[in-house]
Each structure stands twice: as C-alpha cells, then as structure tokens.
Amino acid sequence: MALTLCCLLVSCGGSGGGDDDGGGAGVDGGDGTDGGDGTDGGDGTDGGDGGDTPPSLSIDGGPNQSTDEHKIDLTVTASDDGGDPTVTWAVNDGETNTSVVDIDAAGPAATIYFPINGTYHVVVSATDDGGQTAELPLTITVDDLDSFTISGSVEDDEVSPESQVDVQLIWSRTSETILTEPVGGSHDAAFSFGSLIGPEAEFQIKVPGSN
Fold first, then answer.
1. Predicted model pTM
2. Residue 138, Cβ neighbours under 10 Å: how many?
3. Contact at 8 Å (CB) between 87 and 125?
C-alpha cells in the first residue's frame, strides 16, 4: 500500500537559676535544665538536627502566569541561609493536559516554548547544599492569537485507506510527537491539527507508509 499525503496550512489570527533551697536534685543538678537532656543538650533546640531549613522560592506575579505568545520568560527568586541554591525547571507531568514544552533554563531564569495554545504546568525546584529542596508549581496559560491549523488527507489510490493509519504531528524543538489523529478504516481520510503556535517550520506531519 502506497499512501499519499496532502497538507494544507491555515493561519489564524531557659529557665532561671537554681532553687534557693535545692540540693543535689535541684534545677542545677544532673537532670536539670542545664543537664544532658536540657534545652542545650544534643537533642534540644540548638542541636544538630534543627538548623537546616529548605530554601525559599518565589516568583513575581505568583504561581499563575500567562502569555499571548508562543513563549514566556520567567525568573524565580531563590535564597538559602547557606548560599545560593541550585534551581531546576521541569514539566509537572502529574498535573498537565499539554505535557510537551521546551525549557531553556539557566539557573533561576528560563524561557519556555509552547507548541499549542492551552494550559501548562511547570515545577521549579531549589536545592541547597544540605539536600533540602523547595518546590514552586506554576500554571501557565498560553493564548497566542497568531495560531494556525495544519490539515490534509491521506489517500490510497485516491480513496481513504482501508486500514487505520495514525497521522503524527511532530514538533522539531523536542523531536516528539505531540498529537496524533487516525485516518482510514472506520475514519475518513482527512485530518486537522489546530491551535498551533510558533514558527510553522517547527511542525512536521508523518504518516507511516506514505510517500
């Protein structure tokens, strides 16, 4: 079976001292507030486990961000008592309906590129030298008015293929398939991918078995 692919691009707009009467068991004794189990002891508030806290992490505008372009520039503020923490950016896969983005990050600053209008979820993490980590989830709404549609059809000898074929939309920034649409079989021969944003040359249609 030799499939033929046809495409069309449509643009859209302490406690005190000892008890006065106290003996060996008074407040200055071995079990008192200055003793081995007191507030200055190994398990007390000044002990070794109480000093390390996670970094602080924030962003201007809060966790809900928006853009009317196919990208957004973001900068977070990360600080820690022990020095500058390490900042990383990632897609929050557990909370996203559009999971493919391209993140170009250098420490607290990042430019994030999007292929489709929609809502995206990104998480920023800051880790200090002691291994303590803080996370800042971000929700980014993308509404680029300069969106466009790529549509077309797949034919086998000028008719719809007898067997289903999955048309793939590939985004060259990540080389990933971001959308698929079935044609042929119980489906018609036409496909359409809409709300695409960014340079048109970054998108490619792939049909297994086509020429």
1. 0.75
2. 21
3. yes
